[in-house]
Design goal:
Elements lengths: L3 H16 L22 H15 L10 H4 L2 H20 L1
Helix pairs in contact: 1-4
């Protein structure tokens, strides 16, 4: 399983590549609000959701799709880590 730091790094790389190509990944603060600052809009969120689901092989249901889970690299990383842990627990049962 990926560590939180690794998850955050992968997410930061994706966000910068797809939405902020004019900056370096290390310039994007983990708590930078992607919605409030206009980096991700509703269509961008759909792209991000699809990528997270495919990249980390986790299910995302409608209840998970709330701004708090995808507002920043830190929030996305926490969501992914929690979803991966929950999925691992279900697999062990």
């Amino acid at each position: 399983m990926l560590r939180f730091v690794d998850i955050a790094h992968v997410i930061r790389e994706f966000v910068v590549t797809e939405y902020l190509p004019d900056i370096q990944p290390d310039e994007l603060e983990a708590d930078y609000d992607l919605f409030r600052n206009g980096v991700i809009n509703s269509l961008g969120l759909l792209k991000l959701l699809a990528w997270v689901k495919d990249r980390f092989d986790i299910p995302i249901d409608d209840l998970d799709i709330v701004p708090e889970n995808f507002r920043s690299v830190a929030a996305i990383s926490e969501f992914v880590g929690s979803a991966m842990s929950a999925q691992a627990e279900r697999t062990l049962r």
